Amino acid sequence: MDPVELAALLGLTELPAGLEAVEVELDRAVVVTRDEIEQPARRVVLGGGKRLRPALALGCAAAATGRDGDAVVDPDVVLGATAVELVQAGSLVHDDIMDEAGERRGVPTINAKEGPSQALLVGDFLLARAGQLAATVNQDVAGLLAAAIADLCIGQSAEVATLFDVDRSVSAYEDSIRGKTAALFRAACEIGAAAAEAPDGAVTALATYGTAFGMAFQVVDDVLDLVSTAEALGKPVGNDIREGVYSLPVLLALRGPDGAALEARLGHRPGEDEVAHALALVRGSDGVAAALDRAREFNAEAVAALSELPPGPARDGLAALPDAYLDWVLDAKAPDLVAGAATAAGR
Amino acid sequence: MDPVELAALLGLTELPAGLEAVEVELDRAVVVTRDEIEQPARRVVLGGGKRLRPALALGCAAAATGRDGDAVVDPDVVLGATAVELVQAGSLVHDDIMDEAGERRGVPTINAKEGPSQALLVGDFLLARAGQLAATVNQDVAGLLAAAIADLCIGQSAEVATLFDVDRSVSAYEDSIRGKTAALFRAACEIGAAAAEAPDGAVTALATYGTAFGMAFQVVDDVLDLVSTAEALGKPVGNDIREGVYSLPVLLALRGPDGAALEARLGHRPGEDEVAHALALVRGSDGVAAALDRAREFNAEAVAALSELPPGPARDGLAALPDAYLDWVLDAKAPDLVAGAATAAGR
C-alpha cells in the first residue's frame, strides 16, 4: 500500500504531499556530527517502510479538526508524524538486537553490521531525536510520545517474560501487543490530532481508534508469520515459533483438538522439523480463522470510536482503512488463505 | 558527599528537602504494571547514587531565579531534577550492556541478572519515563532533556568508535566526554533553571556552567580509574585500559618520554600484566597531573559563566561546588595522589 493508494483510501488528495514533507523531516532528523550514528540511522530510517503510522497521524489530524487537506501539510502535524516514525525506527533497531536479527528489508541490521553497542546507541538516539521533534510541537505531543515509548517497553518486556510459555493466556498476549504495537498506533493518532490542536474529545476518540487498529494490525502480522511464505514475508516463516513468541493463533490452536500434539513441539527452542510440524498443526487448526475474526472485531471497535468525530471525507477514510489494510495485507502476503476462505464461504 | 554536605556547600538549607522530594518522585516513576520492568528499574534507580545531577538542578533553580530555598522545593523543579536522574539511571543500564558489566555499586547489573533483553527494555523505559516527567513540566524542559539524551548517544558512540585507538586525539576525547557526560550535567543545570521559569540568559549561562563542570567531572573520573584503588572505586582499577577507552592522562602520557613503552601495551585487548605495566607508566608520567590541571581549567570556566547570574548565596554555592567536588572525590578515592601533590607543592 503506497502513499497514493493510502491517499485514495483516506480520501485525502494532499496525503502524498504530507508524507513527502515527513520524508524531508526524517532526512533532517538523522543529520548529526558523527558518522557512526548518522550512517546506520539513515539506513534504517530512510530504507523503506510503509509509513503507515505517519499516514495515520496525518489522516487523524484531518479527521479530528475537519481541516482536511490543510491539516495534512501543517508543519506541526508533519513534525509529530515524523516523531512517531522515528520511534518506530528506533524500536526496530532495539528489537533487532534482542532478536539477534541479521537482516531487515533485505539489508544488514545495525546489530549485524556495526555491532550491538552501536545499534543500542543508534536506537537510543532515534528515540531521543523523536522526543526532540515532539517537544518542538507542543507539551501534549511530547508527553503522548514519551508515554507511548514507555508502553512499548512494558509490552515488549511482557513478551520477553512469556517466551516459550505454552500456558500463556490470550489476555497476556493481548496485553503485550497492546503495549508493543498498539501503543504507537495510538500515539500516531493522538499526536496527529494534538499537533493540529484538535479538541480533547477528538484526541481521546482517536486514541481508541488507534489502539484497536494497532491490535488488529499485530494479530494479522502474527497470523502471517504462521501462514505466509518466506518470499512474501522477506524472512523465514515461523520465526515466532522459533523464538518462543506464542501468538493468538498458536494459543487458540493449543486449546483445540490437536493441542496436545502442538504442545509437544513447543515450550523449548525447536528444531526445524518441530517448527514445520507446529506450523502444520496451527494451519490445520481453527486458530488462524479465529484470530482473523478477532482482528475484524478490533477493526470494528476502531471504526465505532470514530462516531465521536465530525462527519466528513477524512473520517470516512479512517473508517475504511482498518479493513482495507487487513484485506490488502492478506491478499499480498497470504493469497492462498484468502482463496481458501473464499472457497469455504462459497460452500 | 551526602545531601547535607552538598547543602552546606551550596548554601541551601532546603536542599535536603528538595532531594527528598526527588526520591519520592523517583519511587513513583518506577511503578508500572509489569514486575519484569519495575523490579530491576527500582533496583537501579533507588539503589544509591550521589544524586549530584538532581542537586545541581535544584541549586541552579535557586541561583537562576534568586528564589533560593523556595525554588529548591518547587514541584516543577523537583520533577525536572527527577527526570535528569532517570536519564542517568537509564544510560547506566545501557552502558552496562555495552560493557558486559556484572556488578554496579555491589549489586548485579540488570544485564547480568535479568539478561540483556530486559536490560535494554528497562533502559529504554527509564529514558521514556524521564521524557514523560519532563513533558509534564513544560515544553522547554522536554526539549532540553531529549537533546541531552541525543548528545549522550553521540558522545558514547564517538567513544565506541575510537576504542583501542592509540592515535585518539585530545580533542576527540573532549568531544566524546562533552556528549557522554557533560551533556547531562548541562541538562541538569538548564532544566533546573527552565523548570523554575528563569530568564533565557540565566539558562544559557547555566548551560555553560554545567557543561564545563561535567567535563571536569569526567576528566577526574577518568584519572581515578587509573590511579585509585579497587577498594575505593568499588571495581577494578584500569578498566578503561582493559576496555580500550584511552582517556586524557593516557593520551598525554603517550606523548611523553615513555610514550613508546606505553604504546606497546595498548592498541589491543591487553593481558593483566600489560594492564599493570600500562598503569605504572601512566602513573609515572606527567599525564595525571596535566589532566587534573585541565579539570581545574574546566572548573574555572564553569565558575566564570556564573557572572551572568544575580549575586547571592545560591550563586556562591554553585561557584564553590566544582573545586569542592574535585577535592572531595580525590581525597576520598585517591588520598595518595593528594598527599603526593602536597609533597610536590611543598618541595
UniProtKB/TrEMBL annotation, chains A, B:
It holds the Pfam family polyprenyl_synt. One of its GO terms (biological process) is isoprenoid biosynthetic process. GO terms for molecular function: metal ion binding; prenyltransferase activity. PROSITE patterns: POLYPRENYL_SYNTHASE_1, POLYPRENYL_SYNTHASE_2. The keyword Kinase does not apply. The keyword Ribonucleoprotein does not apply. It comes from Iamia majanohamensis. The lineage of its organism: Bacteria, Bacillati, Actinomycetota, Acidimicrobiia, Acidimicrobiales. It comes from the Bacteria. Keywords: Magnesium, Metal-binding, Transferase. This is Polyprenyl synthetase family protein. Belongs to the FPP/GGPP synthase family. Its cofactor is Mg(2+). InterPro entries: Isoprenoid_synthase_dom_sf (IPR008949), Polyprenyl_synt (IPR000092), Polyprenyl_synt_CS (IPR033749).
